[in-house]
Amino acid sequence: MLTRSIKIKKKGGDGSFNGFLKDIPRSTVSVCVAGMKGMLFIFRFFCMALPPSFYPFSIFLFVFSFFSCSLVDMQRCRAFFFTYTGSPARFRGLGNEISASFVLTRTVDGGPMKIHCIPGYISALYLVEYPEQGKLLLLDSGFPSDLERVRFYVEEVMAAGKFTKQRLSEKLRLVVSTHSHIDHAGASKGYERCGIPVACPSGMEKCYSGVEGRISQIFEAYFSQLVAARLGRKVRESSFLFSKGLLGPYWQMPVGALRLDDGTPLPLGFHDWVAINCPGHTSHMVGLYHPFSRIFYVSDMFVAIRKGFFPPLPIEVDWAYNRTLHRLRGLPTRCALLPHGGIIDVEDRCGSWNALIDEIVLHYELKAKCNSRFEWARSIIAARSHLLQGEHFSPDVFPRGPLPVPPKGHEPPHLHIMDS
């Protein structure tokens, strides 16, 4: 088994706190963390009990105690250990066990291409490996702490048995963040600090601006912890590893010049992958398509559970989601890569890509009928959507260009899914 301790270094830090924590038993760390959080919780009630003349000061202390709890969680995350347990990918569990599934196929020039599916803290991470060229592409940066999962996998698991040390910053050439949510873009700033370029959809940099955006980030961060708990994660990993400070943003959007629009090939030598605008879940989300092998990274267009395929939560622009589903019917897809559901052999699971889309549409319509009594919640989501987009998303900006389909008569390469 491969094990390795995480060393998450904040900008300008030396990691010395890590070494201190590693020498302390895990149970002792847990007791100390619980004690510190308990003291901060009591301190918060003390702030609320101050007289009205102290309200400005008490509000400041309340906010300080709130973020202190988050910092305590972050320090706890620094003392975490990962272990590689092999294949297949297991999406439920404690979070410290790393597993993987694979897709094996070929590129346009006939070289091998291997896609590694690695369960992250909340969503699955997909590393695209080009063995002959010695380069990696990451589809979505993931939750803030997922950067260290990817580092462990690249530097320890993939490098096992090799004579030379493999560094993440040298092997990983490009990261793509398909939309702004924390489980897809949370580690973007961390990769940029490592010197790795991050590409993202045009307009994503406007998300979470202003006070409303900061509040939305806080709610989203805590909602993500509920999802992690449902997945069986026992150790809470911090949402604020790459926060800009008390006033936010609490996870930062990429600041580089690499922007993706509908039909844009990925830069930096990954032009065999093409971005497809998929508005609905958010106004700016993109999927990533590999026309030669007909593999589609769907981002959050839909999720897979035991009962089938369902639309995501939330859907911020309903009409755009419906149009996107209709548009994607014309996309020849053999294999779908789901952040929430893993690797899907389309023909084996549904018979065809259009049958899969039909199932999503059916569940979407049934859900709309069953949830009509929750119209108030839908109104809140719509209002939140308007705040996050920063501008009205109109039908005029919906993508209308042709999809990047393979040429007629083209026979796709052999595709092998290793998921058992």
UniProtKB/TrEMBL annotation:
InterPro entries: Metallo-B-lactamas, NDM-1-like, RibonucZ/Hydroxyglut_hydro. Pfam families: Lactamase_B (PF00753). The keyword Lipoprotein does not apply. Residues 122-340 form the Metallo-beta-lactamase domain. Keywords: Membrane, Transmembrane, Transmembrane helix. It comes from the Eukaryota. The chain crosses the membrane at residues 45-67. This is Metallo-beta-lactamase superfamily, putative. The lineage of its organism: Eukaryota, Discoba, Euglenozoa, Kinetoplastea, Metakinetoplastina.
